Structures are given as structure tokens and as C-alpha cells.
Amino acid sequence: MLVSLAACVAMIEANLLLTTAGKTEGSFAAADVMRLPLGILSGMGFIGGGAILRRGNMVTGVTTAATLWFATVLGLCFGGGQIALGVAGAVLGMVVISGLRPLESRMKQDHQGTLVVTTKGSGPTADELRASLLAQSYKIASCGVVHAAGGERQKVTCEITWRAAARDSSIPEVVRTLAVNPGVLQVVWRPKGA
Fold first, then answer.
1. Does 87 score more than 90 pLDDT?
2. Strand segments (E) across 75-167
3. pTM of the model as a whole
4. Is residue 63 a contact partner of residue 96, using CB atoms and an 8 Å limit?
5. What percent of the chain has pLDDT over 70?
6. What pLDDT shows up at residue 69?
7. Which residues are CB-neighbours of 169 under 8 A, at least 6 positions away?
8. If you average pLDDT over residues 48-61, what whole number do you get?
9. Cβ contact 127:140 at 8 Å
10. Using CA atoms, how far apart are residues 65 and 105, in angstroms rounded to an integer?
11. Contacts of 177 (CB under 8 A, 6+ apart)
12. Structural domains of the chain, with CATH
């Protein structure tokens, strides 16, 4: 939304500035008022691209990059003498940045974690654990099994993904369900990033 708003404000600014320049009667060349803003916006796009980082599956800095670009467009408005346009753009930008933050925190996002379940002979098998996770709408990225000598115990390690609110840090229900199973000796839960 910030990039779209910045592009809109930049085009309005360009349209307003185009009427202030042009070819005078005694000149054989016309002034191109868009060259300087074009260079500035390209440079800020490059700097904004450097603010975007990827860490594993997570991409951060997109809002920062969009805000940098938007602030540049506002600077062009104020520098070009279009104060009312700059103020209107700043107000709309603040509405976008601050107004959508509560909505973003309620949106569901992918969460990841590692579930390690140690079972005894009478406990659920690895296939039963996988079926239980899938039945509860968890996605399994990978799953490994270690069997102890004699088949008395097995240790199942699963990398799982599920959707929940962005700020939801609660322990998944599957951990509580497995912890009360009489055939389960130990349940270890590690959310990704913790």
C-alpha cells in the first residue's frame, strides 16, 4: 500500500511540475523536470532493496524499504513546493502504517517448530504420530525416528508447520494431547526461533 501510495503521489507531483517547466521562446532545448526525481527514486529503491533481508523462510524489512521510498517521494513533494500534496501524502502514509498494524497482528501466519516424542513399546508408533498431526491440520516438513535397542523405546522427531495469529506464542494443542498419552514417556517442544 505504501509503494502504491508513493507512486500515486509521485505522479501527481510530476503532473504538477510539468506545467512549471518547458521550452522558452528563445531556447532550443526543453527542461526535463523528471530527471532529478527519477535519479533520486532509483537510488532510494536501491537503498530500500538493501533493507530487505531473508532469514530462512522469513523475509524482513519490506515495510522499512517501502517507508524509505515513500519518505523520499514526500521529500520530493516538499522540495518541489507542493506542500499540500506532501502533507496529504504524509497523513495517508501514517494511516496506512499505523492503521493496518492491528490488522496485521490478527492475520494468520505460518509458525514452525520441532516436536520430539519419546514413546515406550505400548505407545503410539511413528505412523500413528504422523497421522495424528495431519488430522489436527499440522503440516509435517520432515520426520525422523530413532529406535532404541530391543525396540523398547522410540524417539520421533518431527518438524511441523501450522497457521496461527502472528503474535500467537502458545504451545500447540498436540503437545498437551501427547503429554497425557500413557504410552508417551517424554514430549519436547521447541518453537523455531526460540
1. yes
2. 108-120, 139-147, 153-165
3. 0.58
4. no
5. 89
6. 86
7. 191
8. 80
9. no
10. 20
11. 132, 136
12. 2-105 (no CATH), 108-191 (3.30.70.260)
